[in-house]
Structure formats: C-alpha cells, structure tokens
Amino acid sequence: MIFGVLLIILWLPGILVSEINNKNNRLELKRLFKNLDNAVIKTGKIAANPNTINNYKTDIGIPININNTIMAQEQVQNWVQRKEEIKDKDGKVTDVKFYEEWSLPKNNVIGKMPFKINTGLEEIEIPDNKFKNIEYGSLMEPININDLEIENTKLEEINYMKSGTTLIPKDKNQINTSKKISFSSVPTNKEVTIVTDNLNNLNKLEDTKFLYPGIKNKKDIVNDKKTSNTLQRWIFRAVTFIMLALGLMLLVAPIRHVLTETPKYLNLPIISIIKPLIEAIGAIILGLWDTLSIFGSLLLTLIFTILIYLLVNYTLPIVIVLGVGTVLTIILTIIRSLRK
Predict the structure, then answer these.
(1) Which is nearest to 127 in space by CA: 136, 116, 142, 140?
(2) Alpha-carbon distances of 315 from 61, 84, 198, 327, rounded to whole Å
(3) Looking at residue 137, what DSSP letter applies?
(4) Alpha helix locations (H) across the chain?
(5) What pLDDT, on a 0 to 100 scale, did the predictor assign at position 175?
(6) Which of 73, 135, 282, 292 might form a disulfide with 259, Cβ 3.0–4.6 angstroms?
C-alpha cells in the first residue's frame, strides 16, 4: 500500500520530467539540423596501425599482445555468491537460497593509440588529444581469443583455457575462486564516418558523435536522432502510465488481502454455504477495480500529459492568456459593481 501511494505521488512529477526531457530532445534535434548544415562528413576505413599493444598484463596475470587495433578493452567477471530471500504473499521471509553466477563485467581500458581514417582520397589523422571526443563503445567488437597472442604454457600453469571469446578456468572446482576474462577492440579496417567542423581542427559538433560506425550521411544522423527521441518519448510515457496503474492496484492491497483471505476462515457449516458467494463478490470487486485502474490511468495519463506538454512548451502564451483573462475578469467585475 505504501509503495502504491508513493507511485501515485511520483506520477505527476514523472510526467513533468518526461515532457521536459522531450522538449530538450526536440531542441537538440533543431541544433543538430543547424550544425550539420556546415559540418564536414567523411566516411572511410581505420587505416592499418603499425603499433601493437604488447605485453599487457591481464587481470589473471597472463601477458598478451593485441594486433590490428586502435583501442582495446578487457572485461573481467568474478564468480560470486548471491543471496535470494523467498517471501510469502504477506512479505515475510520463509527461506533463503544461495546461488552462484558470474558478476557483471568490470572494464579495463588496455590502450588508445593515434590513428588515421583512409577515405580512399585522403587520410585524416586523429591525434590523441581528440580521443575524448570518441565514443568507443559503439565501435567496439569482441575479440576471438584465438586471435590474441597468448603463451599457452602460461595458461596451462594457472589451469586456464581458451573458449570462444573468453579465458576461463579448466577445472570447475576452481571456478569459485576464479575470474572470466574477455576482450574487445576497435579493429583496423573498420568502416567509420567522421563528423566534424573542419578537417583542420577536428572539433566534435554539439549533439552528434565524433565517429559513427559504418556509412552515415546527414539524413542518417538526423533519422537516428529522431528514432532515439521517439523511443525515449514513448518509453517515458508508458512508464508514467504504469506508475499510476500499479499505484492504484497496490493502493487497495489491504482490501485485496481481506477479500481473498476471509473465505478461507469461513469453515463453519452454516457460514460455509455463503463462502462461494463471498469469493465471487470479492473477485468481481477486485476485477472491476483493476479494470478501472488500467483504463482510468490511461485516460488520466493522457489528459495530464497533454496539459503538462502545453505548459512545458507554451508557458509564455499560457501565462499571457491567463493574465489577459484575469485582467478582463477584474474589469468586468468592476463595471458590474459600478452599474449596481
């Protein structure tokens, strides 16, 4: 019940935050249109890099060499024990279970190196002072362990083996004190598109990426932004609807408990005759409430989303209209009082 009240309280602020975010996204899209008018957009492949990442000491102590890359990353996962509490419908803990699994990966950046983009007509050099502009995550690809330079004898010494894109322990009994290692990189010969103000300064434009994977033109970049904005907008709106619907359902949790549990205690011979009727009435009441919660939440969310959308995007016109309306109301009131 308390959680339901909290969801209902946060519902309107949630709509407000959603519509402010939507407004900011629209403004970003307008700036993007303007920035791309004077942008330099070039597509090419990351040129072969003579440098390699040598003798990088992994988290399990094995040195490796990585070739044909401009940046690499090590993902480390630990074998951890988790605790799960089993609760009954009243929220009381009835049992505790322990299970083991790999943790979420911790990323270690191995190296970043200057590189060039070969467009076929020219080579654009990307110096290290521009690395801060690059979102490497969208350019990364998993590395097959067999493509890494690793001394197999050293792996055997610590009882590890290669498996697809990971290094894992050979012995299952060793797993509870071990780590799983995988690698990813931005490979050379990868096709990318650079978006910048000019090829001399190589500055990152506002509201765009500096490097996009694959072939991109102005239309593609704008469409990507539109798609992202649309996805965000409807996810936020769906979340606000779910908040209110779930909040209303949880609000009657005590009543739901009474209606569902009471028939269990009606075991007296005489009272048990009306037990099916009580169960049926309880089910109908709860069903009607849940139905009204869903459709009512949908209608209320729609109405308040429209109102808050207008308030966020047309604040000044609304203030002017309200101000003029207030002044006219005062004037008419004074005129009427004078006539009397």
Answers:
(1) 116
(2) 60, 49, 38, 18
(3) G
(4) 2-37, 152-157, 218-251, 253-261, 275-313, 315-339
(5) 52
(6) 282
203-206 LR contacts (CB < 8 Å, sep 24+): 203/133, 204/130, 204/133, 205/35, 205/36, 205/39, 206/31, 206/35
- Three-class DSSP category at 194: strand
pLDDT at position 272: 59
Residue owning tokens 């070039």? 42
Residues, the chain? 340
Beta bridge partner(s), residue 40:
196
Mean pLDDT of 10-25: 91
With tokens 């869903």, the residue in question is 294
Confirm if 331 and 263 have CB atoms less than 8 A apart.
no
pTM of the model: 0.70
- Average pLDDT over every residue of 126-155: 85
Domain segments of the chain: what residues?
2-26+232-339, 40-204
Diameter of the chain measured on Cα atoms: 106
> Is there a contact between 91 and 250 (Cβ–Cβ < 8 Å)?
no
Q: Which two tokens stand for residue 49?
A: 């890099």
Distance CA 276, CA 263 (A): 8
Place of tokens 């040195």: 63
